Amino acid sequence: MHITLHFKPNEGLEIPQQYNHILQGVIYNAIEPDLATFLHEKGFTSGGRSFKLFAFSRLTGRYEIDKNKGSIRFCDDIRMTISSPVNEFCNSVANGMLTKRWLNFGNNRVEAEKMIVQQYEVDKPQVRIRTLSPIVVYSTFLRPDGRKYTCYFQPGEPDYDRLVENNLRKKHQAFYGIEAPEGEVKVRKLGEVKLHVMSYKDTVIKGYSGKMELTGPRELLQMAVDAGLGSKNSQGFGCVEVV
To answer: Where does the chain hold its CATH 3.30.70.1900 domain(s)?
Structure first.
């Protein structure tokens, strides 16, 4: 399920350019406390991995960037999309946002004006998507001296599809408690993709945005559309919409 929220800032909204942690906080503050605690402390688990099973977009709207301050200022209507396969989470987000109405985006007061709910049904083994926030795909390796380093991948590289598929299979197992059907997941770029180098709580993260075509088992493609594609979805990466 996808929930698109329209916000109206009280006197404009000025936040850091790297604002994912602020949006994540808005979401956690909107949902039921017990659900927030479950997601934060446990989540849905598979093979020792924990998944929150939600993703969210970048903010969209008319904005100005102040490079000297490292901030971005939204001037009027702001839109944000949140997606998840977990109905309880979606209902809690919707009720929380509209019931509270006035939300804190950092030090700013923002009014939730309206909400649009959409369910994308993947009914065949192929779907075209557009990113609403950059997709992050990576592996962690050990250097000879024992230190860890992270290698990020882009669509088209040999390991990209394998890592995307493995991630989706773990999400499916975590949510449904059963293995997904057999079949490879493939990602094909539809035009150029754009590299984004971002920061989340002082950690540098690389992701890619653009239009892509996914092929593979329908159940895994549905999970990609709802829970997000790639890693770090609950930190504001890999949110997509069907086109």
So the answer is: 126-242
107, 151, 161, 175, 242 from 139: Cα distances, Å: 35, 5, 13, 23, 27
| Cα distances (Å, whole numbers) of residue 118 to 65, 121, 147, 234 | 31, 10, 44, 19
Does the global pTM surpass 0.85?
yes
Predicted pLDDT of residue 38: 96
Burial label for 174, CB within 10 Å (0-12, 13-18, 19+), is: buried
Domain 126-242: which CATH number of 3.40.50.620, 3.40.50.700, 3.20.20.370, 3.30.70.1900 = 3.30.70.1900
**Best CATH choice for the domain 2-118 from the list 3.30.2350.10, 3.40.50.970, 1.20.1080.10, 3.30.70.1890:** 3.30.70.1890
pLDDT at 9 over 90: no
pLDDT digits (tens, 9 = 90+) for 94-107: 999 989 889 989 88
Q: Which amino acid is at 155?
A: P
pLDDT tens-digit series, residues 150-162: 999 999 998 999 9
